Amino acid sequence: MLRTAAIIGLFPLLLLASPASALTKAQKMETCKFGADDQKLTGAKRKTFMDKCMSNRDDKRGPAERK
Fold first, then answer.
1. At a CB cut-off of 8 Å and minimum separation 6, what does 16 contact?
2. Domain-by-domain residue ranges, the chain?
3. What pLDDT score does 46 carry?
4. Ordered DSSP codes for the chain
5. Does the CA dihedral 19-20-21-23 come out positive or negative?
6. Which sign, positive or negative, has the C-alpha torsion 35, 41, 47, 48?
7. Which of 11, 18, 41, 66 is in the most buried spot, having the most CB atoms within 10 Å?
8. pLDDT score at 15
9. Could you report the per-residue pLDDT of 25-64, keeping only the tens digit for each?
């Protein structure tokens, strides 16, 4: 009983420790579509944007600065 209570108590901490950038492919696709729609891209420009957005390559600008 005590072990179960400890596991249930620690579960929220484990969720907070997971990386916020761990998106599923569907979530990433939704975000990329939103970006393409926001920029009103069509045709080849939209395809290029979606390919770059969905790729797992690092951003050329480098990592974001942490405060």
1. none
2. 23-56
3. 93
4. -HHHHHHHHHHHHHHHHS-TT---HHHHHHHHHHHHHHTT--HHHHHHHHHHHHS-PPPTT-SPPP-
5. positive
6. negative
7. 41
8. 59
9. 888 899 899 999 999 999 999 999 999 888 877 666 666 6
Is the CB of residue 54 less than 8 Å from the CB of residue 36?
no
Residue type, 38: D
Phi, psi (rounded to 5 degrees) for 28: -65, -40
Return the closest-CA partner of residue 54 out of 13, 20, 26, 19: 26
The mean per-residue pLDDT over the stretch 11-20 comes to: 59
Report the pLDDT value the prediction gives residue 44, as an integer from 0 to 100: 95
Asked whether the beta carbons of 33 and 53 are under 8 A apart, the reply is no
Both structure tokens of 55: 């790729």
